[in-house]
């Protein structure tokens, strides 16, 4: 088994005033909340966005595990669409004491580099900050955080920093070097 050194950076915002929104991209870009939790849709987004950058943590989930992850109060999936075609998503995961994690965020490879990512991240972070307005049983958001790693796209960290996130932790670890699963074999060759 071969390994690869992976650096993981954790970043945060501690006030809605920290958010520095990106400009909206030109064209027909829409961001819509998936109001009905759908394991099929979320798994599609997860594999389409993360397949070429080694997202594997949820690949082994059963349907019931996907449903349980999505059914928790306050979990939200926001999809970005260009001309009606899914382009990417952001998944919000509320935690204790007013903390919301940007659990997953990214674009399908064909939509990267088109200025959609900054806009989607800005929109998703704003929804993290106002999450309690849609989920009154949840406390008001006091902190929004996320993590990214050296396997993510080359513009990920810059996008987070430009949106007003601040680094609070860096970890380096050896991980098993797994072949990128892609949404299907050879999709990103």
UniProtKB/TrEMBL annotation:
Residues 29-189 form the N-acetyltransferase domain. Its EC number is 2.3.-.-. Keywords: Acyltransferase, Transferase. It comes from the Bacteria. InterPro entries: Acyl_CoA_acyltransferase (IPR016181), GNAT_dom (IPR000182). Pfam families: Acetyltransf_1. One of its GO terms (molecular function) is acyltransferase activity. This is GNAT family N-acetyltransferase.
